Amino acid sequence: MRLLIVGDGKMGRAVASLAAGRGHESTIVGREENAEGHGLTAERTRGHDVAIEFTRPDAAPANIERLIAAGIPVVTGTTGWDAELPRITALVEARKGALLHAANFSLGVQLFLRAARALGAEFAGREGFDGFILEEHHAAKRDAPSGTARVLRQRMREADPARQYPITSVRAGAIPGTHTVSLDGLYETVTLQHTARSRDGFAAGALAAAEWLPGRTGVFTFEAMLFGDRR
Ligand SMILES: NC(=O)c1ccc[n+]([C@@H]2O[C@H](COP(=O)([O-])OP(=O)(O)OC[C@H]3O[C@@H](n4cnc5c(N)ncnc54)[C@H](OP(=O)(O)O)[C@@H]3O)[C@@H](O)[C@H]2O)c1
């Protein structure tokens, strides 16, 4: 496949490196050549099978809009632009385009979210336990709380609407990403944790999504791709 990678940062480079190992060709578009998404013309996207977007929350919506207008399927892992999702969804549907978005492209995290939801459901109706979420990331991460922590809270609240799950964010050093959900009672704590050891896990998931998306139309999540449900 020929990939158009938008964003020359940690994730864009991780995806390009993994893609090369799988026999894909990549072109990377950095910020200098793409102010306000204007670098993503039909001419620029021509000859590419799919775009993979990892930029910044303030840049992602314009990039996705441009890529969809150019008629190329888009996989995006940029977090922190959820408020724009309804508008982008309408646009993708009107154009009969294809978009797959995920706050977290790690397979382990997607399984962790399911396990956390089941844990939350087991605690539903049991008093005496406080729920809380801790998310830890490297110092350069711009959005807080992380997109994954917000999805985790949503899953816990779906399973047990009566319990609050406040989120604490830590930004320090080079941590690729750790998410912990705990329930603490008078005598005990139950904890479920996911720790990413490297960015390659996210890159592998984004690449799998990029291999899956072409030929489909609509807006998908990584979860829908993995488990077949549309959430
Ligand atoms: N879904 C997942 O699994 C997952 C995993 C890891 C990270 N993320 C998210 O993915 C995003 C990127 O993460 P990262 O670690 O790669 O960040 P990063 O290292 O800061 O890289 C982002 C890159 O995008 C560039 N950029 C900004 N605006 C652009 C534009 N309009 N066109 C092209 N490039 C542009 C930035 O350039 P400048 O530095 O010059 O602004 C930077 O090089 C973040 O939102 C992060 O939270 C998601």
Can you give a write-up of this model?
The protein is an alpha/beta fold and 231 residues long. 37% of the residues lie in helices and 23% in strands. It is built from 8 helices and 10 strands. A 6-stranded parallel β-sheet has the order 2-1-3-4-5-10, with helices on both faces. Strands 7-6-8-9 form a 4-stranded mixed β-sheet, covered by helices on one side. It is elongated and about 65 Å long.
Key words describing this protein structure:
231 residues, alpha/beta, 8 helices, 37% helix, binds NADP nicotinamide-adenine-dinucleotide phosphate
Order of helices and strands: EHEHEHEHEHEHEEEHEH
Beta content = 15-25%
User: What is the global morphology?
Assistant: elongated
- Strand count: 10
For the largest beta-sheet, the strand count, sense and barrel status come to: 6 strands, parallel
List strands and helices in order, with pairings:
Elements: E1 2-6, H1 10-21, E2 25-29, H2 42-45, E3 50-53, H3 60-69, E4 74-76, H4 85-95, E5 98-101, H5 107-123, E6 130-137, H6 147-159, E7 167-171, E8 178-184, E9 189-195, H7 200-212, E10 218-221, H8 222-227
Parallel strand pairs: 1-2, 1-3, 3-4, 4-5, 5-10, 6-7
Antiparallel strand pairs: 6-8, 8-9
Helix pairs in contact: 1-7, 3-4, 5-6
The protein binds NADP nicotinamide-adenine-dinucleotide phosphate (NAP).
The site of NADP nicotinamide-adenine-dinucleotide phosphate has 28 residues, from helix 1.
Quick rundown:
With 231 residues, the protein is of the alpha/beta class.
